[in-house]
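User: I'm putting together notes for a lab meeting next week and I want to include a structural view of one of the chains we've been expressing. I don't have a solved structure, so I'd like a prediction I can at least talk through. The sequence is below, exactly as it appears in our construct file.
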Amino acid sequence: MIDLLIGSLMTGWDTLAGYLAEHVVTCLIPAFFIAGAIAALVKKEAILKYFSPDAKKSTAYGLASISGTVLAVCSCTILPMFAGLFKRGSGIGPATTFLYAGPAINILAIVYTAKVLGFDLGIARAAFAVVMAIIIGLIMAFLFKSHDADTKKKTAAMPSVPASGDAEKPRWVIPVFFVFLVGILIAGTAQADWLIKFPVIYVLTLGTAFLLIYYFERDEVTEWGLETWDLTKKIFPILIIGTFALGMLSFFLPAETFQPFFGTNSLGSTFLASIVGTILYMPTLLEVPVIGTTFGYTSGVMAGGPALALLLSGPSVSLPSLLVISKVMGPKKTIVYAGLVIVFSAVAGFIYGNII
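Assistant: Thanks for the context. Below is the predicted structure for the 356-residue chain, given as structure tokens.
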């Protein structure tokens, strides 16, 4: 019994140490800084005010579908934002698109997926998530037209959201600032010698520092730091504990156990994976080691189709989140929403595993 405990602890530590060594410095730290900058410098109101039932569909669904990269939210923080949108008069289509897309294309999750599970799976996750979010939102809007009709009546007298003022700094500053941050991330994760990568990272860091010193206010820099720290303290401890626990679990339940269920790209495997993702609660980023280690994607045990299906369903939907959503928009709409996520996640996984 003691030997089993020691063995599981050692396996957990080895798994954690491997993830820390390979991904934290070059991947997660730059990604946290990028996500913090997005949260601090991109005004949420500029996105959220376009979600009303009367808003232009291309604008409403387009913004809602990419909201995850802009707002840098996870599955736990998207729910109160969704509830606020829903109660303040958002159309059900843009609101559900926002609800799904927020966690699905979280900038941290996409970068981490591409780094750990492969660039192709990371890109597929982002692309399918955007397309699925729009389709799911459009179907919800079509099925529940009466909701939007009632919403228009209730919100007709509501004042419009005032436009935010223009920033005093030149327009090119913030885009270039993000280019520098993304450049640091790309250079750090590139498969190249550090003698090549280090000078590039050094120059980009100097450029970032120059912009911070000469073009940003102290309050903006402070907010960036606070947002970065807030994301780090919320996500990183869970990732550490979860990765260690998954390593211990793999000692008792090796990845080969799941091969009969997730080892092929059949529609049955992708459908099962999407159901598992819908039921399980996986904090942001933890879905990556779950798929890579527990289900064995990185060792070739889990096929690509089920892996993508779980990536598309797991971060956005879980049994606890569905219970919360049902209190916001009712059981009927929640069941339809969950069913759409399951079906489209399974189909997307099947397409990725067999066609792409």
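A couple of points you could mention at the meeting. Residues 158-166 have pLDDT under 50 and may be disordered. The chain is about 75% helix and 0% strand.

User: Perfect, that's what I needed.
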